[in-house]
Design goal:
single chain, alpha/beta, Aspartate Aminotransferase, domain 1, four-stranded antiparallel β-sheet, 14 helices, globular, binds ligand C6P
Length: 398
Amino acid sequence: MEDYKKYFPIYANHKDLAYLDSAASSLKPKCVIDKIDYYYNNICVNVNRGVYSLSYEATDLYEESRRVVAKFINAKEEEIVFTRGASASLNLVANSYMDFINPGDEIITTLQEHHSSFMPWLNVCNKKGAKLVYIPLTEDGKVTIENFKKVLTKNTKVVAINQVSNVLGYTNPIKEICKLAHEVGAIVSVDGAQSVPHMKVDVKDLDCDFLSFSGHKMCGPSGVGVLYGKYNLLQKMPPVEFGGDMAQDVYEHEMTFKDAPYKFETGTPLISEVIALKDAIDFISNIGLDNIKARELELKKYALDKLKSVDGIEIYNNNLDSSLITFNIKGVHPHDAASIFDKNNVCIRAGFHCAQPITRFLDQISTIRCSFYFYNDFSDVDKFVKSVIEARDFFLSF
Ligand code: C6P
């Protein structure tokens, strides 16, 4: 396996680290850290405001990042809004599109969602008298087109769905869902937080109306996210935050706004973060999303093969659809198990992963999640499996 760890300074500072929590946040390569450093050492000023060369340079780099993001997902640059993260993007869509929701309208979602994907729409439903409707999941927690058709009606106005679940890792049939939703006049808001870092996502091919994702899960800085929206929709939607830089003409009792995407970017943006997001995208594009996916699946297969011989483990997504393994050690609380992983320098996540409905669907209060990215290798998996066995033996010995 190619050694990608050498690009990530954290490994030089933590020699024995087995980082298996990339679904929460990825590690950051040196090129991204260097770009942030470059901005603060060499530019350091605001965008879109200063009538001087440094500010022009900052603005150029900021807008270059927008072009790179757009190309990465096959969008147009005016369809890219920079936000603080996937949660902010998902909230922006719901809070703005709320103006077009009326009593009796239906919004379809799934039990698989991260809280940030469905809670903004639950809020919209509570405020507007609309109804949140859930696609019934299969026994193993999957979304099927057959079940989607059961809840799609002429009252459906929005479908809010993840492309990849952060707990079970399944990839949902977004393209078919968009096609069917559009036939009844509904729009589709896709949560791409767990898909965009790991697979090629082409918004034109999917024909989704919105796509939200975060920089920090794809080797980029934390604090920056992306909202893709079809331009005609972004243009007709009202801004949800008002103030600096998004205004066109402002009088005592009247105001007009810039065109999308700028009307959604209020105030001084996350300048260094946006600028360095370009480097993250260049970095993962150079490695290649197909290579990333293949490496993750190889690691998952290796881990599942090893776990097969470990008694007392319950795995909730025993398949090769994704780079996540979500499981429990029978009779051991995930947070107790986490203390053993931590002692061994193995970073995993234990809890309900900001997705209580799917955790309840699994009939659990919390689970342990191990998530791979391309910088992991077999030695990380070996340490992980060793810790699973140690946690089981230690806690079941009482
Ligand atoms: N999931 C996890 O450990 P933010 O925090 O705004 O960057 O992303 C929110 C979000 C939205 N959708 C999905 C599917 C996600 O997985 C996340 C973040 C992390 O699973 C932190 S809770």
